[in-house]
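Budget justification aside, the reviewers requested a transparent look at the raw inputs and outputs of the sequence design task funded under Objective 1. We therefore reproduce one unedited record. The lines immediately below are the structure tokens for a 142-residue chain.
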């Protein structure tokens, strides 16, 4: 009897081709899912800053644009907790900081590749929006 064991070169090449196809599909899907999951860092930071701004309003009868200083929100940093977003507070469009605010989280670091939702925003009215790198509004980010 001719009892040979092992794989032929053709079988090995077919396996490698199938593996290559799986990798080309799986890696971009995984990276996209990671970007979506890291958005939670920006959203959480926006909610935290909004809560601090409301507390500041209750105590001082005005909002503030000072995020990191002790006289403002006393966060110590302008980055989100995981560091994927840079946070900024500004007066709302056409308003004064004493009456309304808009908080934005701009993707940075490893999240900078998130072209769909590059900037997340939350306004004092509760309005949520997101912009891509072309400043086009994307409603699927929240």
């Amino acid at each position: 009897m001719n009892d040979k064991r092992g794989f032929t070169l053709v079988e090995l090449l077919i396996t490698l081709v199938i593996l290559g196809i799986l990798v080309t599909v799986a890696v971009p899907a995984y990276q996209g899912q990671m970007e979506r999951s890291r958005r939670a860092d920006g959203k959480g930071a926006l909610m935290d800053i909004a809560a601090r701004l409301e507390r500041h309003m209750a105590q001082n009868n005005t909002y503030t644009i000072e995020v990191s200083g002790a006289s403002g929100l006393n966060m110590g940093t302008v980055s989100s907790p995981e560091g994927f977003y840079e946070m900024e507070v500004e007066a709302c469009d056409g308003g004064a900081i004493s009456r309304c605010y808009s908080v934005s989280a701009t993707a940075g670091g490893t999240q900078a590749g998130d072209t769909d939702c590059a900037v997340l925003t939350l306004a004092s009215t509760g309005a949520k929006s997101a912009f891509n790198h072309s400043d086009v509004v994307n409603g699927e980010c929240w």
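Helices lie at 9-60. DSSP finds one helix and four strands in the chain. Computational costs for records of this kind are itemized in the attached budget.
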